[in-house]
Amino acid sequence: MRVFLTLWKRELAATFLSPTAGIVAVVFLVVCGATFWALIASLASGPEASAGLVEVGGWLFVLTMSVVAPLLTMRLFAEEYRSGTYETLMTAPVTTAAVVAAKFFGILTFYLALLLPTLAYGPLLRQCALTPPDVDPATVMGMYFGAVLIGGFFLSLGLAASALTRSHLAAGLTAFAWIALFLLAGLIPYVWPVPGGDRWATWLSPIVHMADFARGIVDSRFVVFYLINTLWVLFVTERLLEFRRWV
To answer: Could you tell me the CA-to-CA distances from 247 to 21, 241, 243 in Å, in that order?
Structure first.
């Protein structure tokens, strides 16, 4: 545990001091703020105008994360390979599992820190609105829970992509391609009209899942889907590093 905490602090410091992470944070918060502004504007126009905007906000979040996750993770191992610090790290008394866990939870902690400012939107709305709208707590909790699950899965894919190459650009493009495959799964019923297409889209598409979370629907099947797949991707990443360590 002490080794993990040391590596986690090292990764967290490197992330917060990274110029790329700072730019990504600004863009992410601007998109979230613009979505919040659009929600307020629609609520001011009446409940009919705001119908479905929460789901649209969930879709916009998933699309934003498809870009944010590769940008945040592309340097994690690629930078270690390029600078030569990976060999030094692997000669230390640490395991590849500890390295993978520390890097994943380091970038996940940074991602959770990005979500923290958005928690102020609810109190801000209640303080500024003449007639605060009724907001279902289950909807808010579902959206954040879905954001953590889906964001964590995307970050694990980016971590695996970074473990494959020393090029930042190649790692980012690979991660984006993998995430795009899941995003495009929602189009299966339209481009591949076969029996069962809707079921595949429901199981694989993060946009479909986020829409459910945004409505306050927490389906245990989707929770298990993201937890298992995140762990599986991290396990594959650890095996890749172990193989690289001995070749």
So the answer is: 32, 10, 6
Residue 153: CB atoms within 10 Å = 23
Half-sphere exposure of 234 (CA within 13 A, CB side): 22
7 is written with which tokens?
């590596």
Longest Cα separation, the chain: 66
111 Cβ neighbours under 8 A, 6+ residues apart = 72, 151, 152, 155
| pTM higher than the cut 0.85 | yes
The SS3 assignment for 97 reads helix
Assign 12 to helix, strand or coil.
Answer: helix
Determine if residue 159 is left, alpha or beta; phi over 0 gives left, psi from -120 to 50 gives alpha, anything else beta.
Answer: alpha
Output the pLDDT for position 230: 95
Q: Sketch the domain layout of the chain as residue ranges.
A: 2-246
